TrEMBL record:
The lineage of its organism: Bacteria, Pseudomonadati, Bacteroidota. This is HMA domain-containing protein. Belongs to the cation transport ATPase (P-type) (TC 3.A.3) family. Type IB subfamily. It is a multi-pass membrane protein. Residues 4-70 form the HMA domain. It holds the Pfam family E1-E2_ATPase.
Amino acid sequence: MATERHIYPVEGMSCAACSASVESVLLHTPGVEQAGVNLANATAWVVFDPSAVDPDTLRQRVRAVGFDLRTDQEYSPLAMQRRRSQEARQMLRRFIAAAIGAALAMWLQMQMGHSLGGRIAVAVIAGLVVFGPGWLFHRKAFALLRHGGANMDTLVSLSATISFVYSLCMLIRYGSTLASPHSLYFDSAAMIVAFILLGKWLESLAKAKTSGAIEQLMGYQPNTAHRVEDAGVEEVALEQVQVGDRLLVRPGERLPVDGEVYEGQSTVDESTITGEPEPVLKVHGEHVYAGTMNQQGAIYITACGIGAESVLGRIVRQVEEAQGSKAPVQALADRVAAVFVPVVLGIAIITLAAWLLAGGVGMWNQALLAAVTVLAVACPCALGLATPTAMMVAIGRAAKSNVLVKDAQGLQLAGEVRTVLLDKTGTLTEGHPMVAEVAWHAPEAEQGRIRTLAATLEGLANHPLSEPIITWAATDSRAAVQDVESIPGYGIFARSAETSVWICSPRAAKEKGVGLEAISKELDDFEERGRTVVLYLESGSGGRMEPRLLLGLSDRVKTSAKEAMARLRGMGIHTVMLSGDRQRSVDRVVQEVGLDEGHGELLPQQKEDWLAQERRGGVRVCMVGDGVNDSQALARADVGIAMGKGADVAMSVATITLATDNLAAIPWILSLSRSTMRIVRENLFWAFFYNLLTIPVAAGALYPLWGIQFDPMYAALAMAFSSVTVVLNSLRLGHGKGI
């Protein structure tokens, strides 16, 4: 069954209860495998079987509960930003109108509240506010009510409407004979609308900043390109560029697409993609990437990756998906949000009844005031925004630092890591090994043939040591081989017309019973000098594999490794190196880098066994690697971190990908995760504490003790700023030191 994954904008959501409703209806739609809703960026991601359900059906199902799933348009960060800007402008206009009306109503209430004319004027102005700028809340509440739903708009609509309608009834009945103007709540109704609109405007401004990382990434890609035609060069919109088009990129311009240089040469700043500050020389035949900066010379490229298919496009897509995912810590908030509004409505009714039972009809004003205040003060928004806003900011900040996080769950788990397991080649070392020493055990007449076979087999392998061996072989010739088999941890095997060939490590050869006594001294010497040894074996007399060639490869330890490991130790994290190299080579790197321990001569399965051993007792384990032989451990670890220049399979199974060789990114992302979870906990505490504190106070808990009763307008102000506080707290994650 083939499934599709799409991200769609959702319109009409205003609180956690809304997102819970949309998510529930999607998950209960036949044909939908997985679904999630992100209130912070107003999107829903859906994995569904197109043969069982189509996007129009999904849209109809969501519309049935009062919201709109925009399946007619895929989620676009730029389009979302335009909508948010438009929404912020609309909210600002509504707030200004409501604030002017509410302030005027309050002034008239105080200055002319004892006269019938003054009271009528206050009622008219308040009505214009409640049913003018405030119509937004009534419309959404009515739409949900038709489908049996309720959300924050319901609470705002009820609190403002009840205050206004009750005051209107009192004015019609008593007119100017009503003893105190304070028994009328026209100004409170208007202030409720004004304060909530103020909060919504500030919230929309703050939420727009949470997606700043994606905007920055997309801003690296120019909107136009210079296409080379027979008649000359013309400037065209990026959307018009197709794969195979020839493009000119002038000095100082950013590359519009991924491509291959076919003429000219220049240095290109690729820090937006790789994080490496040093410009890279690009000549004929080399790849270039969209969003990178051409520095010195003009280059002509052939387009091969455009828009979403470029490396930059895939990075943006991964960040979008990660920001839309849910962290496990959000589950509690979702469960509470699902029942929050009905519970608050119930508390408001109980409050009204309790006041009337305690004081009789004479307490009607206080009873109604308390019930309205409960409706105005309750805030489900903070619950819904507590986790996703923090995750969005953190994932975006990581992306700007060339660290790509697959999902929110991985970011949460990264903060709980207590042990980090690291591969050696390409992870702790530069990943640019070279053949430093050679020991032949074959006649000189055979050495050319062996070089060709070695180059042929390594060209079919996918291992960090393949490229340096091919370079050392220094031959363009390739041999005819068959029965090629590449096994992670055991090297590569093949047959040629003359012999069977096996290229492997000394450990693998020993495990298969190959006698290495004749080369034991050379092995010891190579390892003493810190070489990684690769054996070339051929079938000899009796079909037994015999060593014909020893290659000693060297690879420098990354300059960032020692500092990174020191920072990990400072965070209380245990560091362990797992490698397929022999133990002497491993011990040398452990000592040089400052790791807690290191273990060599390990197969991929043994690395996974080590990981399982470390996880016993509930310890969170992170695996860092870059090769095919690390993929098992990366997939099984609580958090897998892949080096961005490693094998594709390693990056596909990893939780986090480092698009930089700087190992300081490891403690940095783990530290960012810890900071993120601290902010999430603060947000959740505030969201729960705020409601647990203010709802009882609004209901009148302080009245029997000190005669204090919360005014609905101040309750609305508190409610407005509760969600803004959560978003602003999350935005703190966007600041601080980079890697």
